[in-house]
Design brief:
alpha/beta, 5-stranded parallel β-sheet, 9 helices, binds adenosine-5'-diphosphate
């Protein structure tokens, strides 16, 4: 089962992705986590990505598509994965399609987490105090929300037209939201 978690920064994709991975036994893979690890380890990928991440911009598709290919070709991805933070552009979604077709699979479920802007900003500012992420500054948060609207939100229509989208209200307790997620994917 191939599941995509879609939603703006702060919508709770990471939290719910971890719970769903636990429930289904599928690996959860987050491009944000992979990129932060690359930055931390000072790899060439990390070096390229950091400037974009700190500004709240997307890392260019030509970099990310290679990373997505590497992820989807892993043996552990053979039976499905939970994609957290990708695809984030139409070009990335098309790359995911191509890679899945080549292994006779397809995107099964796309969960679109819906949270108001005020709540997102509140959560992200709170996270900066707790975790100190360099892209949780007010300026970078504003930019990331704008980038989401422009580059990523079109994927809601892209997947809705294909009949695989479920909207998940992203407010309420973590457990309540986890139940909505499980019902949406039949887990
Ligand atoms: P959030 O959803 O809170 O923004 P992520 O950890 O998913 O956090 O992403 C952090 C940053 O990493 C993004 O702002 C972007 O710069 C980069 N990034 C992560 N995934 C992608 C992707 N699929 N395409 C382009 N950039 C990405």
């Amino acid at each position: 089962m191939y599941v995509i978690l879609l939603g703006p920064p702060g919508a709770g994709k990471g939290t719910q992705g971890i719970i769903l991975a636990d429930r289904t036994g599928l690996p959860r893979i987050s491009t944000g986590d992979l990129l932060r690890a690359a930055v931390h380890n000072a790899t060439p990928l990390g070096h390229r990505a950091k400037q974009f991440m700190d500004q709240g911009l997307l890392v260019p598709d030509e970099v990310i598509v290679g990373l997505i290919a590497e992820v989807l070709e892993r043996p552990e991805a053979a039976n499905g994965i939970i994609m957290d933070g990708f695809p984030r552009t139409v070009a990335q979604a098309e790359a995911v399609d191509r890679l899945l077709v080549s292994r006779n699979a397809a995107v099964d479920h796309v969960l679109s987490f819906e949270v108001s802007k005020e709540e997102l900003v509140r959560r992200l500012l709170g996270r900066q105090q707790a975790e100190g992420r360099s892209d949780d500054t007010p300026e970078a948060i504003e930019r990331r929300l704008q980038v989401y609207r422009k580059e990523t939100e079109p994927l809601v229509t892209f997947y809705r037209d294909r009949g695989v989208l479920t909207a998940i209200p992203g407010t309420g307790s973590i457990g309540t939201i986890a139940t909505r997620v499980q019902e949406a994917v039949g887990a």
